[in-house]
Design goal:
The protein has 480 residues and is an alpha/beta fold. The chain has 15 helices and 24 strands. The strands form 7 sheets. The protein has a 7-stranded mixed beta sheet with strand order 14-17-18-13-12-20-21, sandwiched between helices. A hairpin with a 2-residue loop joins strand 1 and strand 2. The longest helix has 25 residues. It binds ligand TXE. Ligand TXE binds next to helix 7 and helix 8. The site of ligand TXE has 26 residues, from helix 7 and helix 8.
Length: 480
């Protein structure tokens, strides 16, 4: 199976005719090829987008909204097919792809189809000066969207839907590790009649294709989700060109558990927030902090629940933990297991690669719980991004807060307590962009989404995304 670039509504070979292998992580084998696109391919995509922009930006909001809704409809119609493709490409369990990834991709389009019809801007009357100011919010032009491999279609569409809703045209690149559903989205866009050049998808490596998008002088905004190191690099490249940047980066999120919480609910959710998608979600609560008085009980109960998780072939609907996304990523996760002892940790459960009968070359790893005592250890400071969590105890609210904030990341935090005062005090002082209280990953697409500290810059979601993808212009009219 050869995936091609999607430019001007056509599926085209890369100009250099150079290709990359695409792996199925469940079996560790190549199952397709994708373009190894060069700067010239990005330029071709840019030209198509620039040509489409004057017309697309003048489509009425109703017209744009209708097309976005149709894309949402078609994604839902093809839910099973897309979920199977996502699961095969990424290694995630088919049930997760069906319940979360693909429905959310449809919701992204549905949400922004509606949001754009409600989006408005401000006006300011300059009282006594006979002048009225109003803010015009115009689309930027051609924008770049670069997405990662962990939630492929979900995060790709989270950028594309608001960008085109706001009237921009796009040069987009999905992760080279998980290109399949982006490719299928191109087909869906053709089916619903998205005009040519509005969305262009170039496949290839981050360091070449992605870099060419970021370096392109006429692509004036970049929306990126991925690793913190890559985000910092993109910021360095884009800054001298004064590009608008939205960076959603890594996390090392605290899950703070107090003795006064609803214990059973907390336990079940904590299993999910630790290991959903093999722990490969930037929002996973990878640092579990537990109040001392329930620490031993939690430890025992949690390990027991984790032992029930089934590591299996992603296409089996009873699988809880599928394959990690790539051999390289599996090696990264294993490298953290290698340093557990030296970092003063103790493996309480898991810690081993899994060899599944008939899938011996797949990238499977046990859900792993590590007990630690020092928050400064690398296991608690660095983003592992796999099925690995640490647990440690704390004594007071202040201790919990200090531990929670003592990392360079600041994406999200989860808090389990039934004490309102404590909730407010801690939620206010957590240095994160998102705080969940007595729940995890409950998403309302109207809310600002993103991180503080080294977890990123800017916010996605709701009107924040529409603001990002538009340039505000103040128009001041003086009258007599
Ligand atoms: O991400 P990269 P990687 C974290 C996680 C993971 C680490 C590295 O800790 O282990 O990042 O993952 C494109 N110019 N997250 O290496 O490289 C790349 O092709 C432009 C957290 O896979 O950041 C892909 O499309 N683009 C995260 C995208 O950037 C470049 C999700 C992300 O890849 C580029 C994924 C460049 N120079 C990983 N280099 C989250 N926040 O959810 C790479 N890319």
């Amino acid at each position: 199976m050869k995936i091609k670039n999607y430019i001007n509504r056509e599926f085209v070979n890369p100009i250099s005719n150079s290709w990359l292998d695409n792996y199925n992580p469940a079996i560790g084998e190549v199952y397709g090829q994708i373009p190894n696109s060069s700067k010239e391919d990005v330029e071709k995509a840019y030209q198509a987008a620039a040509k489409a922009f004057p017309k697309w930006s003048n489509f009425t909001l109703e017209e744009r909204s209708k097309i976005l809704s149709k894309i949402a409809d078609l994604i839902l119609e093809k839910l099973d097919f897309l979920a199977e493709a996502e699961s095969k490409d990424n290694g995630k369990s088919i049930s997760l792809a069906k319940q979360v990834d693909i429905p959310r991709a449809a919701s992204n389009f549905r949400f922004f189809a509606n949001a754009i019809t409600q989006f408005s801007s401000e006006s300011h009357e300059s009282v006594g000066l006979n002048a009225i100011n109003f803010t015009l919010r115009q689309p930027i032009g051609v924008v770049g969207c670069i997405s990662p491999w962990n939630l492929p279609l979900y995060l790709f569409t989270w950028k594309i839907a608001p960008a085109i809703a706001a009237g921009n045209c796009i040069v987009a690149k999905p992760s080279e590790v998980t290109p399949m559903t982006a490719h299928l989205l191109g087909k869906i866009c053709n089916e619903v009649g998205l005009p040519k050049g509005v969305l262009n998808i170039v496949h290839g490596l981050g360091t070449t294709t992605g870099q060419a998008i970021v370096e392109h002088p006429k692509i004036k905004a970049i929306s990126f989700t991925g690793g913190t190191k890559t985000g910092a690099h993109i910021a360095r490249v884009a800054a001298p060109m004064f590009k608008k940047l939205s960076l959603e980066l890594g996390g090392k999120n605290p899950n703070i558990i107090f003795a006064d919480c609803d214990y059973e609910k907390m336990l079940a959710t904590t299993v999910r927030s630790s290991f959903a998608n093999q722990g490969q979600i930037c929002l996973c609560g990878s640092r579990i902090l537990v109040e001392e008085s329930i620490y031993e009980k939690f430890k025992k109960d949690f390990i027991q629940k984790v032992a029930d998780l089934k590591v299996g072939n992603p296409s089996d609907s009873s699988t809880d933990i599928g394959a990690l996304v790539s051999k390289q990523h599996l090696e990264k996760v294993k490298s953290y297991i290698d340093i557990v002892e030296q970092e003063g940790g103790k493996i309480l459960s898991g810690g081993l690669e899994v060899t599944l009968p008939n899938y011996e070359n797949g990238y499977y790893f046990q859900p792993t719980v590590i007990e630690i005592t020092d928050n400064k250890c690398r296991l608690n400071q660095e983003e592992i991004f796999g099925p690995v969590v640490t647990i440690m105890s704390f004594k007071t609210d202040k201790d919990a807060l200090t531990l929670a904030n003592d990392v360079k990341y600041g994406l999200s935090g989860t808090l389990w307590t039934n004490n309102l005062n404590r909730t407010m005090q801690i939620a206010k002082q957590l240095q994160t962009g998102i705080v969940w209280v007595n729940t995890w990953m409950l998403r309302d697409l109207r809310t600002p989404f993103g991180g503080a500290k080294e977890s990123g810059v800017g916010r996605e979601g709701g009107f924040e995304a529409l603001r990002f993808f538009t340039e505000p212009k103040n128009i001041c009219i003086k009258y007599e």
